[in-house]
């Protein structure tokens, strides 16, 4: 068997910062193997072939710990495979007090025998260590490992991070992993950040920690964060704190904030109409209409005041549409799908006439009373998702308060605002008589 002296000959350790993406300061340093004549993976593979895998990993951890604790109270992360972690060699090398130490699990072996290592993980956590999982998002095995370990730190695979600012699918997956991390009490760390745009997108997605060449390259002694990268982190946080519109992104949190900011600054129905492109983007809709509830002499009607062609939209009596009246009274939402044969025939005709396939209706209520109706249209024949329904209700709360204070529709018509591009016609239907019992779904 190869001796420990042979194993460690020519082996050095380099440290790379794991950076707080809000402040630009090192949060931890990862200790990285630097063999003299082979790549780290080849060096470890050779040691395992010679029957010295756990001993090699234990000695590498020892070298990393000899460098002392990082400056500024930062944590120290060391890599260890699942099989070596439970070995006597690694257990003997680890100090009793593991406070300030991150143990980063580097292999997918754990998915085969996750339960056998839980006792070791519980002991290590009890001694102060944090557990990290590498390469999350690289495939099913890595995600299964995350579920088994419930780590304190989830490190996103560099392939998921690369070009994230250009790929909505990557954004969606990181958002999902971020929600998982919040619910399980973990934090995300993005590996392989190489561009400022990637850094900015990840910070906006609430990924708290990042690592990569753009932030800092590995070095034998505690490297500092690149000044431009640290500045980008601080300026990103400062921008988020400043009052006013933030740059419009394509993920939900930024769209919600940008829309809420614009709605809070509306002073006319023309202003409200100008927010519709953002609202359509947030709800993934192809068109929408916002109507105000008027009640002259106890005969309430809905008058469209914002939408694709709101100047030409007719008003309609609530009494003529019993189902709409019920929605306004209860606050419940409703949807109509083109493929739903049980839906109200008048709403199906409305969808067909306008080349649409789905309609969602959200009552607008303020002060315990109905004040209007939000209608959202789609050209796809698919149900609205629960998230879209929740987002629409959130927007409806803003709209309800806004409609109570904006000037009347007749005053807004004089502005002559044409609205955003979208539907050419919304209600090309004759008025339904008051005795029509089918109602408006």
From TrEMBL:
Q: Which Gene3D superfamilies match?
A: 3.30.450.40, EAL domain
Q: Which InterPro entries match?
A: Cyclic-di-GMP_PDE-like, EAL_dom, EAL_sf, GAF, GAF-like_dom_sf
Taken from the record, one Pfam family name reads GAF
Question: CDD domains, from UniProt?
Answer: EAL (cd01948)
Q: Tell me the lineage of the source organism.
A: Bacteria, Bacillati, Actinomycetota, Thermoleophilia, Solirubrobacterales
Q: Entry's PANTHER family?
A: CYCLIC DI-GMP PHOSPHODIESTERASE PDEF (PTHR33121), SIGNALING PROTEIN (PTHR33121:SF76)
- Pinpoint the EAL domain residues: 1-232
> What name does UniProt use for this protein?
EAL domain-containing protein
């Amino acid at each position: 068997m190869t001796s420990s002296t042979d194993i460690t000959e020519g082996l050095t350790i380099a440290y790379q910062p794991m950076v707080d993406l809000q402040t630009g300061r090192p949060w931890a340093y990862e200790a990285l193997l630097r063999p003299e004549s082979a790549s780290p993976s080849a060096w470890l593979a050779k040691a395992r072939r010679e029957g010295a895998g756990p001993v090699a990993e234990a000695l590498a951890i020892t070298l990393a710990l000899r460098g002392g604790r990082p400056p500024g109270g930062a944590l120290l992360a060391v890599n260890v495979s699942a099989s070596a972690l439970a070995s006597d060699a690694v257990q003997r090398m680890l100090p009793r007090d593991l406070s300030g130490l991150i143990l980063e699990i580097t292999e997918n072996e754990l998915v085969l025998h996750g339960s056998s290592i839980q006792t070791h993980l519980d002991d290590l956590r009890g001694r102060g260590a944090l557990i990290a999982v590498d390469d999350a998002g690289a495939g099913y095995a890595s995600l299964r490992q995350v579920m088994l370990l419930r780590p304190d730190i989830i490190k996103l695979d560099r392939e998921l991070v690369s070009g994230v600012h250009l790929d909505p699918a990557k954004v969606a997956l990181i958002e999902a992993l971020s929600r998982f991390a919040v619910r399980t009490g973990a934090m995300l760390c993005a590996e392989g950040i190489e561009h400022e745009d990637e850094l900015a997108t990840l910070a906006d997605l609430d990924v708290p920690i990042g690592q990569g060449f753009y932030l800092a390259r590995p070095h034998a002694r505690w490297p500092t964060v690149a000044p431009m990268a640290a500045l980008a982190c601080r300026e990103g946080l400062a921008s988020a704190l400043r009052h006013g519109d933030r740059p419009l992104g394509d993920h939900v949190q930024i769209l919600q904030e940008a829309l809420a900011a614009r709605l809070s600054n509306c002073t006319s129905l023309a202003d409200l109409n100008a927010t519709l492109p953002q609202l359509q983007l947030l709800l993934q809709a192809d068109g929408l209409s916002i109507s105000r509830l008027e009640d002259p002499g106890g005969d309430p009607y809905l008058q469209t005041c914002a939408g694709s062609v709101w100047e030409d939209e007719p008003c309609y009596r609530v009494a003529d549409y019993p189902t709409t009246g019920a929605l306004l009274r209860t606050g419940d939402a409703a949807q109509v799908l083109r493929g739903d044969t049980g839906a109200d025939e008048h709403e199906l005709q409305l969808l067909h006439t306008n080349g649409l396939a789905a309609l969602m209706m959200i009552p607008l209520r303020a002060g315990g009373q109905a004040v209007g109706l939000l209608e959202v249209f789609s050209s796809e024949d698919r149900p609205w998702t629960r998230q879209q329904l929740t987002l629409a209700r959130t927007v409806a709360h803003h709209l309800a308060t806004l409609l109570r204070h904006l000037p009347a529709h007749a005053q807004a018509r004089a502005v002559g605002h044409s609205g955003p591009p979208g539907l050419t016609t919304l209600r090309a239907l004759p008025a339904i008589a008051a005795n029509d019992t089918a109602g408006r779904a």
